Automatic annotation (TrEMBL):
This is Ubiquitin-like 1-activating enzyme E1A. GO terms for cellular component: cytoplasm; SUMO activating enzyme complex. Belongs to the ubiquitin-activating E1 family. It comes from Crucibulum laeve. SUPFAM superfamilies: Activating enzymes of the ubiquitin-like proteins (SSF69572). It is found in: Nucleus. Residues 8-19 have a biased composition (Polar residues). InterPro entries: ThiF/MoeB/HesA, ThiF_NAD_FAD-bd, Ubiquitin-activating_enz, UBQ/SUMO-activ_enz_E1-like. Pathway: Protein modification; protein sumoylation. It holds the Pfam family ThiF.
């Protein structure tokens, strides 16, 4: 057997922590931040990403650069001119090509140590094939999907005990939802004596999306409700309801009245503190009526960046992940986490 070239041979040598020398060198800075064990868990993880639009693009960049083991991407669509704004894996000449055919080499170039597998046949998302696929991965993330589809995917992930993330943007609004089952992580122990360990192992019990959406807000004080700013959340939930009714996103000012009616009914049914919110502001509804179907690159970058980082947190188990619904408002540049139907 012939000897490996020097550069290939060195990359296969194992360090004392089980990583190759190339991995140890590439990931040295982040291992100092979150530790070798967390890096090993990322390196051993297979992540399934469903749909490649702006939010997924940013999340994938963060995860691949951080050194996950394998990325499986499913998307059967072709590149459109609209994809060029927030999809930095695409170029003008890619319009009309399969998204994954255009993006695969560019994703791989971010980090040659990560295995990238692409599936351009969307039939794999049908029941039997989907279950087979989910059994082979460690975590599932789907972006820019409809509510019914998200609930179905979450249910399959629950069946096979796979952590589930969802995310997306609607114009200037964005969200992240996660169901991490019973998730163990290290949390800061502020009550610990001076010389004792500063972190303790903690478990958080998450809820599936269909349970989270039945959350009632009546237990929150006026101050707590103000801090969460639930108007943005209910605007997103109204978009989901509109999409479920019409099989499309709102994209015209003529949709404003219906969206407003849906949003305000959701607020009423959820028993939100009436001193804080009795209706979603008309200006917010008017904005999403015409922009929800469009992607804005800065919003995708923020939401997708947070999505990728939170997935890495969940894999590493070193920090507190989102619990369990994050919403972002590009109108103000602010975001909040809503704890929905979690114990």
């Amino acid at each position: 057997m012939s000897a490996l070239p020097a550069n290939d041979a060195s990359s296969t040598l194992q360090t004392s922590n089980g990583l190759t020398e190339e991995e140890a060198s590439r990931y040295d800075r982040q291992m100092r931040l979150w530790g070798i064990e967390a890096q090993q868990r990322m390196r051993n993880a297979t992540i399934l990403m469903i749909r490649l639009r702006g939010v997924a693009t940013e999340a994938i960049k963060n995860m691949v650069l951080a050194g996950i083991g394998k990325l499986v991407i499913v998307d059967g669509d072709e590149v459109t001119e609209e994809d060029l704004g927030a999809g930095f894996f695409f170029r003008d000449e890619d319009v009309g090509k399969k998204r994954l055919d255009a993006a695969k080499v560019r994703i791989e170039s971010l980090n040659p140590l990560v295995t990238v597998e692409t599936v351009s046949d969307s039939s794999i998302l049908e029941d039997g094939a989907l279950e087979t696929l989910i059994r082979t991965v460690d975590l599932v993330c789907v972006t820019d999907w409809d509510r019914v589809g998200l609930i179905r995917l979450n249910e399959v992930c629950r069946r096979y005990k796979k952590p589930f993330y969802a995310g997306g943007t609607y114009g200037l609004l964005g969200y992240i939802f996660c169901d991490l089952l019973d998730h163990e992580y290290l949390a800061p122990d502020r009550s610990a004596p001076k010389d004792a360990p500063k972190s303790i192992k903690t478990t958080a019990a998450y809820s599936p999306l269909d349970v989270a959406l039945r959350h009632k807000w009546g237990g929150l004080t006026k101050r707590q409700t103000k801090e969460i700013n639930p108007a943005v959340l209910f605007a997103i939930l109204a978009i989901w309801q509109f999409q479920s009714l019409h099989n499309e996103l709102p994209n015209d000012s003529g949709h404003t009245n219906e969206l407003e009616s849906i949003a305000n009914l959701l607020v009423s049914e959820a028993d939100v503190n009436k001193q804080v919110l009795t209706h979603v502001p008309r200006t917010l509804i008017e904005s999403i009526s015409t922009t929800a179907a469009h992607e804005f690159s800065p919003v995708c970058a923020i939401v997708g960046g947070m999505l990728g980082q939170d997935i890495l947190k969940a894999l590493g188990g070193r920090e507190v992940p989102i619990a369990n619904f994050f919403v972002f408002d590009g109108n103000t540049g602010g975001g909040t986490v809503c704890r929905m139907n979690m114990p």
